Amino acid sequence: EEMWTTRYFRDSRLLGIGGGADEVMLRVLVKTEGLEV
User: Which end of the chain is more exposed for a tag (fewer CB within 10 A), N or C?
Assistant: First the structure.
């Protein structure tokens, strides 16, 4: 059986990666549209 601490750590890392990808995509879209952030 998997410990809840292991699961929490793994899931938090995945969410962090997803958040970073969203920020990168937002910057790419802003540059593509010629907008300023």
Answer: N
pTM: 0.40
DSSP 1-37: ---HHHHHHHHHHHHHHHHHHHHHHHHHHHHHHT---
* Assigned domain for 7 exists: yes
Q: How many domains does the chain have?
A: 1
Residue 9 inside a domain? The answer is yes
pLDDT in tens, 6-36: 887 777 766 666 667 777 878 888 888 887 7
How far, in Å, CA of 4 to CA of 11, rounded? Answer: 10
